[in-house]
Amino acid sequence: MTQAEHIILTTRKKRKRQLIFKIISAIYTTLITALLLYIIIHTGFPIPANNNTVTPTPTPEQNMSNESEDSFLSESIDKNGKFVALTYDDGPSNYTSYLLDTLEEHNARATFFIIGNRADKFRDTIKRMDSLHMEISSHTFGHDVLTKLDEAGIKDTMNKTDEALIEIIGRGADLMRPVEGALNDSVQSFITKPIIRWNVDTMDWKLQDTQAIVDHVLENVTDGCIILMHDIYPTTIEASKILIPKLQEMGYQLVTVTELAQARNVELLPGEIYRNFPSLEQKLSKIIE
Ligand code: NI
Q1: CB contact set of 181 (below 8 Å; sequence gap of 6+)
Q2: How many CB atoms neighbour CB 138 within 10 A?
Q3: What angle do CA 120, 105, 173 make, to 5 degrees?
Q4: Rounded mean pLDDT of the chain?
Q5: Active-site residue, 143 included
Q6: Which of 89, 90, 204, 231 is catalytic?
């Protein structure tokens, strides 16, 4: 073999090796992209949370309560439509029954994150929430900031709220929302209900201005959003009176948080944090961006 022939042969070998390497890389890239897409479509975007690393196992009770809600979902909801979950914290209050009137009038539902120590005073309001298929959830027993409590304190404030509700409607809270949104890994590990945050904050407690609350919601509403309000201010109740029919006119179905999760095929797990439930189209358009 001449020197020239030897060089040609070595170059060919190199090219062949490069080609094989390129084919293998392409196969890897395709597989990884497919896997990522699969994960995104089936589990949703990972939710940014405060050092959220805890993944507790679902308990049998939670699965049972989810199943009982399923039958209700199928009756009244167009799964392919648009959704909003209105949520109200810190009640019940003397104003809550007016809000229930509006919700009932428009066949709308909402989720109430109640303060456990108010339950007894507002037994009738809570019973009415239940009969109107509102979602009744926990905002601790005494509006307690969970990051300031130890394990026993956290379990106590959660259990006492459940006990108060069981006494009135025969079951505990479906979901929970931490006071001030305050959470850390250790608090999260003691929570045995799905943890619900929000992605539209009306700032109604600060604004206390009906039109400003309405405007804020209409400017920020998106399909699958969770809106935070408080049913302890007359301005919030008045704003809801305008917003509920308005959002329905805009094509939004007003559902509970659990119904919204079910419509978007998300299983709510105890100790996990959720802030909204975008549609598949919204998720995909975010990837393309
Ligand atoms: Ni609160």
Answers
A1: 197
A2: 27
A3: 35
A4: 86
A5: no
A6: 89
